Amino acid sequence: MAEKGVLIVVSGFSGAGKGTIVKKIIEENENYALSVSMTTRKPREGEEEGRSYFFVTKERFEEAISNGELVEYANYVGNYYGTPRKYVDEMISQGKDVILEIEMQGAMQVKTRFPEAVLIFVTPPDAEELKRRLMSRGTESEEMVNKRMRRAYEESAFVDRYDYLLVNDDLDKCVEDLHKLIDASHHAPNCSAGLLEKINEQLKVYA
Ligand code: 5GP
Predict the structure, then answer these.
(1) Is residue 109 part of a domain?
(2) Does the residue 120 lie in any domain?
(3) Which CATH number covers residue 20?
(4) Helix, strand, coil % in the chain, rounded to nearest 5
(5) 132: pLDDT strictly greater than 70
(6) How confident is the model at residue 2 (pLDDT cuts 50, 70, 90)?
(7) Helix or strand or coil: residue 75?
């Protein structure tokens, strides 16, 4: 049993379906905690303050940056997005596995600050499917869809910086694989630092 929770980063091209995947795994395991991000983007229809995001002004976001309130942040197609530090720290120390659903720039900051974090990238099977999913949302203008496709092109060159890749062509399989990856990450030695210290102490008599 892990002493501390694991920090899991889930990224993917916008429209890859990572929101759906993350929502599903959170419902299936009560030891997972989903971090709610802060953003300067305007709420979409159906999005709720404090559940989907904390929707803030640019001024408030910049204040959060300078106060060190964020684990990471990025500017994504014209808006700021960032992860509030307090919740992540509290949940990890309570032994919860914290899931961050964030884009690539932020993921790289997490990797630098928390080398033990597990980085997972979700992709649809091909670009055509990506565009189809973005268009079918119906919440985005054609210009915004094209901006997101362009961003996906730029991001595609850096996916090899992640630890794992999940292809989302079958939602249930994808969710199952994500559970397995999180489960496996509990077996990293750093999750059992206390146990290793104890064994080391016990072995000292043989030194
Ligand atoms: P959307 O506007 O579609 O909700 O999100 C746009 C992108 O921002 C998505 O790729 C999403 O994963 C990412 N994102 C959401 N929250 C954060 C965050 O706190 N930090 C970073 N770096 N990216 C985020």
Answers:
(1) yes
(2) yes
(3) 3.40.50.300
(4) 50, 20, 30
(5) yes
(6) very low
(7) strand
Which ligand 1 atom is nearest residue 101's CA?
Answer: 12
pLDDT score at 139: 76
Q: What is the mean pLDDT of the chain?
A: 93
For residues 96 and 90, give the distance between their C-alpha atoms in angstroms, rounded to a whole number: 9
Q: Is residue 71 part of a domain?
A: no
Q: How far is the CA of 56 from the centre of ligand 1 (A)?
A: 14
- Ligand 1, atom 7: closest residue by C-alpha: 103
| Number of domains composing the chain | 1
Residue 1 — very low, low, confident or very high, per pLDDT cuts 50/70/90?
A: very low
C-alpha to C-alpha distance for 204 and 199, rounded to whole angstroms: 9
Q: What is the extent of the structural domain holding 25? A: 7-35+97-206
Q: Is 81 in the pocket of ligand 1 (CB under 6 A)?
A: yes
The pTM for the full model equals 0.91
